[in-house]
Amino acid sequence: MSSTVATAPEQATKQDSRVARPRRRVPAPYFLLIPSVVILLIGMGYPLIWQTITSFQEFGLSQQFGQPAPFVGFANYIELAGNPVMWGVVGRSLLFMAVTAIITLAVGLLLAVLMTAVGKVVRLTLQISLLLAWAMPVVAAMTVWIWLFDRRRGVVNYLLDMIPGVEMNRFAWLENPFTFFMVASIIVIWMSVPFVAFSVYAGLTQVSDEVLEAAQLDGASGWQRLRFIIMPMIRPVIAIVLLLQLIWDLRVFTQITMLQDAGSRASEFDLLGTYIYKLGAGSQDFGMASAVSIFVLLLTFAISWYYVRSLLKEDEQS
User: Fold this and answer.
1) Model-level pTM greater than 0.85?
2) Separation of alpha carbons 138 and 146, rounded Å
3) What are the residue boundaries of the ABC transmembrane type-1 domain, all occurrences included (predicted)?
4) What is the average per-residue pLDDT within 3-30?
5) Measured distance CA(165)–CA(153) in Å, rounded
6) For residue 1, what pLDDT is reported?
7) In the chain, what are the domain boundaries?
8) How many Cβ atoms are within 10 Å of 200's Cβ, its own excluded?
């Protein structure tokens, strides 16, 4: 009897030790991630390494036929730093990025709020229209837009010319830098708004109806509910959408290239994407083109740093 009583605390201690013992982490999820990580490293790591190495070399047309590329160190970067054309393209790209991203976010936000306010039929019609605009291939869409702004047969010139006092007959939209980038902004915004609208609308559907009803009962107007309740709750969605738009609009290429083919290919009509393309494929100066590409990569990191830092702060607080 005494031995049984004496062993009871020992059994309890053993059970407590078994409960307190930390569980072993199962390595299966990490093994399942290995193929994806390897594919990502091969797909993105190799081009990045090649671009970095080439940016420190004099890599021209002869190097593509087997001649060794001379190592020039930071000569390409130093030449870019003193090139006024390069900085003109950078300033133009940053301005284009900021304007198009902000307008895209504003229009997408308004459409998302509209989809929450209208009836089912109108909302479904709007969603289908946005989805069709988003799904349209870029080349097909650009063909239509170039035709709309054509100086001789363009519908835009025809409609504007019908306004009394407005002379738009044979107006060349794509031969002036200001109107060229205005048309480019309209096209990029038109192609990007559906993504923003759907993303913000998905965030709006997660806002609690009870909270909005309580605010309405307390006397909050529609604008106050939007500003002080809805916007703070969907701020993470807006932040990531704005970040993606800034990155995409900084690297825009296809729209600018096709508009240049229909208008002018002068350097005043270049953004970073077309500038890199002209340096590499046009001038066969792949070393300089790689240096500009690395600069764009660093610029993208700088733009993304604020959002990444915010994520890290939120993770530490949680």
Assistant:
1) no
2) 12
3) 90-307
4) 57
5) 20
6) 46
7) 101-270
8) 23
Structure tokens at 206: 């997660």
Q: What is the rounded distance in angstroms from the CA atom of residue 117 to the CA atom of residue 212?
A: 13
- Highest-confidence range of 65-74, 181-190, 234-243, 272-281, by mean pLDDT? 181-190
Cα-Cα-Cα-Cα torsion 72, 75, 77, 83, nearest 10 degrees, comes to -140
Q: What is residue 57's three-state secondary structure? A: strand
| pLDDT tens digits, one per residue of 103-142 | 999 999 999 989 988 889 999 999 999 999 898 999 999 9
Q: What angle do CA 78, 247, 276 make, to 5 degrees?
A: 40
Which class for 274: exposed (0-12), middle (13-18), buried (19 or more C-beta within 10 A)?
A: buried
At 197, the pLDDT band (50, 70, 90 cuts) reads very high
Helix ranges restricted to H, the chain: 2-20, 28-40, 46-55, 75-81, 84-117, 120-135, 138-148, 155-161, 177-204, 209-217, 222-225, 231-233, 235-250, 254-262, 272-277, 286-317
- How many other C-beta atoms are found inside a 10 Å radius of the C-beta of residue 190? 16
* Token output for 138: 């870029």
Q: Which pLDDT score, from 0 to 100, does residue 16 have?
A: 52
Could you give the C-alpha distances from 215 to 110, 218, 224, in angstroms and in order? 21, 5, 9
Residue 92 has pLDDT above 90, yes or no: yes
pLDDT at 15: 53
The closest of 150, 279, 282, 254 to 192, measured between CA atoms, is 254
285 has pLDDT over 50: yes
Residue found by looking up tokens 């001038």 in the block? 283
Give 101-270's CATH code, choosing from 3.40.50.300, 1.25.10.10, 1.25.40.10, 1.10.3720.10.
1.10.3720.10
Spatial neighbors of 120 by CB under 8 A, at least 6 apart, are none
CA-closest candidate to residue 86, choices 255, 249, 293: 293
Mean confidence (pLDDT) of the chain: 85
